[in-house]
Fold this sequence. Notes:
The complex is a heteropentamer, with two copies of chain A, two copies of chain C and one copy of chain E. Chain A is mainly α. Helices cover 76% and strands 0% of the residues of chain A. The two termini of chain A are 32 Å apart. Chain E is of the alpha/beta class. Helices cover 43% and strands 18% of the residues of chain E. Chains A, B: Residues 1-22 are annotated as: Disordered.
Amino acid sequence: MPSKFPSARAGLEGVSGDSTAPVAEKVGVNPEAAEVAGLDALELQPKRDKGRLGKRVWRSTWPKVLAIAIVLLVWQITVWSEWKPIYVLPSPSTVFTDLGNVITTGDFWDGVRVTMTRAFTGFLLAVVIGTIIGALVSQFAPLRAAIGSLITGLQTMPSIMWFPLAILLFQLSESAILFVVVLGAAPSVANGLISGIDYVPRTWLRVGQVLGMRGVAKYRHLILPASLPSFISGLKQGWAFSWRSLMAGELLVIVPGALSIGVRMQQARDLSDSSLVICYIIVVLIIGILIDVLFNAADNALRRRWGLLSS
Amino acid sequence: MPSKFPSARAGLEGVSGDSTAPVAEKVGVNPEAAEVAGLDALELQPKRDKGRLGKRVWRSTWPKVLAIAIVLLVWQITVWSEWKPIYVLPSPSTVFTDLGNVITTGDFWDGVRVTMTRAFTGFLLAVVIGTIIGALVSQFAPLRAAIGSLITGLQTMPSIMWFPLAILLFQLSESAILFVVVLGAAPSVANGLISGIDYVPRTWLRVGQVLGMRGVAKYRHLILPASLPSFISGLKQGWAFSWRSLMAGELLVIVPGALSIGVRMQQARDLSDSSLVICYIIVVLIIGILIDVLFNAADNALRRRWGLLSS
Amino acid sequence: MSLLETRDVRTDPLVRLENVSKTYGSGSNALLALDGVSLTVQKGEFVCLLGASGCGKSTLLSLVAGLDQISGGTLDIGGRKVSLMFQEAALFPWLSVRGNVELPLRLQGVSRPERRKRADELLDIVRLRGFGDKRPHELSGGMRQRVALARALAQNADILLMDEPFGALDAMTRDILHDELERIWREQRLTVLFVTHNVREAVRLGDRVILLSSRPGRVIEDYPITHERPRRIDSPEVSGQAGEITDRLRAEVARHAQ
Amino acid sequence: MSLLETRDVRTDPLVRLENVSKTYGSGSNALLALDGVSLTVQKGEFVCLLGASGCGKSTLLSLVAGLDQISGGTLDIGGRKVSLMFQEAALFPWLSVRGNVELPLRLQGVSRPERRKRADELLDIVRLRGFGDKRPHELSGGMRQRVALARALAQNADILLMDEPFGALDAMTRDILHDELERIWREQRLTVLFVTHNVREAVRLGDRVILLSSRPGRVIEDYPITHERPRRIDSPEVSGQAGEITDRLRAEVARHAQ
Amino acid sequence: GGDDEGSSSSSGGGSAEAESLRLGYFPNITHSPALIGVNKKFFETALGSGTKLETKTFNAGPAAIEALFSGAIDATYIGPNPAINGWAQSQGTGLKIIAGSTSGGAGLVVREGINSPADLKGKKIATPQLGNTQDVALRAWLKENGLNADQQGGGDVSVLPQDNATALQAFAQGAIDGAWVPEPNYSRLILESKGKVLVDEKDLWPSGLFVTTHLIVTQEFLKKYPGTVKKLLQGHLESLDYIEKNNADAQKAANAQLAALSGKPLKDDVLAASFKNLTFTADPVASSLFTSAKHAEDVGLLKPVDLKGIYDLGPLNELLKAAGKPEVSDAAA
Ligand SMILES: Nc1ncnc2c1ncn2[C@@H]1O[C@H](COP(=O)(O)OP(=O)(O)OP(=O)(O)O)[C@@H](O)[C@H]1O
Ligand SMILES: Nc1ncnc2c1ncn2[C@@H]1O[C@H](COP(=O)(O)OP(=O)(O)OP(=O)(O)O)[C@@H](O)[C@H]1O
Ligand SMILES: [Mg+2]
Ligand SMILES: [Mg+2]
């Protein structure tokens, strides 16, 4: 009989011959494989290699590296196959040379700075406005009836349709850009909050009521923490919307000097410079991924607190 | 002492003089006012006028009517104030005359049909693809590490940047439009599902495990229903993304026949016809709102089933 | 503490239900959970509620706490502060154990060090010293129930409603908490409405034990418990009266089962 | 059914724990929940587990059910099908009461009419006939627990793990369910591991009553219960042995409290 | 047309000066006079210290018109189409064309194997935008050659309005068979995608001239600050002069400004080819505007619009006269 660790039952599995046994198969699983089992991993995650930082980093890195390697390989093979002329589908090396050239100019980083400043300002504004609207709409039934659906309606509007209004209200200022960004992102934030609030378990609401929570305290201590998961996913969507709106909105006002990412992207397209287009796709992807990593960190911290993830 | 219905304690409230009393205030509230109290209404909703359909419809309609009336009024006043020339900010009557003219042409409805067909096809495709990707990503840890963040990254890409790739892969066909729509919407759907799965309470997962759920059965009977709220909100966001992507994507290919809504919007802008632009903003808003109403119906049915809403 | 002293305060009706009824749902789906319940609880009284599963005990507490609206009759608690310990622990997962206990204190505006001191005291009372920094999901079922008790006590309410508070505890831990609860009740002159399935527990703690009938819930019996405090749960007096009440309860459930 | 007949099957060890330990968390935060637990349950045996709140009873069940991994020792259930009734009812809110009970049957591929028949039978057994179309949130705490019991029974498992299944029930309903559970156990030759805080219940039902020590959980006593079945919970034999076990338990909790 | 009312209303006006002039233009080679004027500071010099120059750039005509109408800019370089649309939408109250800027530089480029209009049957041809100059030119030309094309992309020839970037890529990949586009894409299709010129639009117009870009101002600004407008025109003319006299330097200046605005200059061969195809002139070639509008009406892409009074060439002609150059006319052909 095996003496150590959970392999004992697995050993017996063949003997029992009961293939419907839901348990035996589960226990025999080794920790690394359990990791792979995804959801089950939430429960079965091995605790032992905590602190072995190197291993942990490696484990979250190799799939990324592999994925990138595969993409590059497929790309290069497509290029070699000469399926399309090289000026339509440039090779990875061309693109990365271009990318290298682009990101080594200070001008590019100025553009990144301009764009990120706008993105963060706009997003923060959208979060504030979206949160307030979401809270109000979920709180007051008539308001919900009045503008609940309008929120999603606004969201489906292409940013470009807001340009005339943005120009009308804010002339050609930075505010016009922010306006477009906020209109793009705030509905997601509001919707995330509303849906989170709608799904706060009844029991918790009742507990809050018994504890005498009301008004701001209720939001601070009950509604917000309880709807945080949905709120965060609303923020994530809001970020995606705000970024997309920004890319369009930046074409509204072009400030000579530092060229924002949106303008550069458009320019690359206008020049039909496919290598440059791919460069900017990569730049935008990387920014998007970096931001997503931030959101995921917040999300994981939350899930750990809530006991949905083994720490 | 009052003899009937819940006003008794309210009557005593003044007497007791205990202003911190969390309960007395709550009970005294009359049903209509409780409705307004929003969240609390979830619990305190009066049951009596069930079936009094007319009243219910009226209750959900008047805020909308009021909201529309207010918007129209503000708009008309702005027009009267002659803040901007009439050709920049047309009056509501001009716009509604135009709108009337537009929607009474069969051509317009053909366009709506074309666009809605694309929207639904694209959205359905996005839902299928997003669901599969979301399920896989949440299931396999390495996949999550590899492409989890990429999903959000892709989402932040303006649809217009996919045009080159769309043409590369699909030439100028309907498929190119669908490609852009799917790329826009699928990440939201996937993200909604992933976040829903991540927040499935541990207890339910354990119940599922004990019941011997695995593979497809686990998704069918546990994961999907449990993550449905978040999934639906992902669908809602996905719809917004797909619609926006569609409005851009429709400019890619003009298929002989009816002029799609996206093309018409663009034309209205190109003609600097602000009245027509507002017409199409209204059309798109209305479509967006109608779809949102569908989503809300699904959401309410769900909340009722889950016991989060009094039926 | 003499019986006379506790009697003193009993002339002051604090919770009064008159002919209260409660219907859930409507139409063909309607369910009459409580029907014509009349009940008066004096200030400082400890009243225990007994009844079959599903007879409406929790419903009654939620009505008194103002969480649900009554469908008929009169309910009056004179605007007192009410605290309710739910049947399920219902702790907030985003707060630590201490955070959960501190929450009512925060809402009362108690200062941070004061809060912390009080929360630690309460955790001591429920025998969970040292568990303050754990999260709710790291506790056993019985431990969670005790945290919920500590949270309810932290509320400093006039009326304490308790829904099977000791259902998930072993006999010994329960005995300890009986003593603690009795002490706090006496010291703070609380009014307690206590739901339980353990008849001996009811007799051990209550000034009165009220029996509810099965669906719809009605008051069918009101036993005053006059044994002198402190009582012991395994004392012959408690056992004796518990036996008597149990028989009555069995008869009621049997009647309903037919 | 004679005792001899039940003894017959006891030569077949079905659940075996040898020196099992379980640690939650790691580092400074680690908590040793179970330490060196050895326990063998024969096929067809009804074993009751007693222990103070937080001593690791639920942990033990979840290890046997394969929901958590053991941190040390050997655990072997021979690949049998296990069904676990959780301490909290944990019903699925998106399914009706009947849907919840039918779920294990669906997973077994039972046909729809068959499923429905079986679910109605089970709801009858737990005395919830007529509640099949309600949703979990429309039930009282005790009713939910009974639905969870019906769901666990629907699983048709070889080993039935029950975590305080009758904690929220009144005495009478509990008695009825004791009888039903005993009948099913006998008819289907189930192996049952039953956690409770009610010592008399343990003596009423069990072939053996196992006592766990407080944190960390260890087996400190293993009482064989030899009274002939059917037993009555208020019979003198049951009360007598329950008293004895209670004293031992009290001693253990008191030891730990120091 | 009439050289009467327009010119008289402003030429007589005083020399009121605005505090600032907000001028719009596109980072596009057809806007070279603006690019060069900004790069070489011709505008700033002409405006003097009294008036501050603020420049705004746009990506497309509609946005520029929106900005003009909402008061965010006072004047802008712009193509004929948006100007006509703006004129029509504002019922002749929003703007005035005060000078020409660029002419020529557009045509139909097709792939190898298409040699005559007849070969276009069943082919896909892109234009920049439904109802714009090139689109109208293509449709009119097709009609002349007995081919029909409807607004929805059907007919003998499929006309597909598309933004320039898409059209270029689609052509490179064979997704379309040709495109009627302006510079610099006209040259790029030829140079980069090995396209073949089927029609050079120059050949379709009497003097080889047709308007591509001109300069417009809001009527309000024109009325209030005729002096400033005149100085703007002064700068504009200097820019045109510079192009005429120092063509190579002008190309460099235009490209430098382009690079500053868009991060990347045009390739030299494209730049040179574009400059060769374009004519930079203060003459707005009014006749081509009227004819083009007429064509648009004919193919149903424009509601009948009265363009009378869209030009106010008085200030320009004063300056031209002072410089001893021939005056220009706003008369229809
Ligand atoms: N939210 C609800 N909607 C509909 N019916 C409900 C709801 N809550 C309770 N009920 C019904 O009301 C009756 C009384 O429920 P209640 O929870 O008060 O019982 P209880 O006496 O607390 O039972 P237990 O001892 O099992 O907790 C039950 O039949 C239950 O089905
Ligand atoms: N997921 C977890 N993470 C960390 N600690 C845990 C976890 N689950 C249980 N524990 C700890 O393990 C110990 C035993 O818990 P368990 O739930 O097994 O107790 P129990 O015997 O079932 O108690 P009760 O009778 O109160 O239900 C407790 O001290 C608890 O704090
Ligand atoms: Mg209850
Ligand atoms: Mg437990």
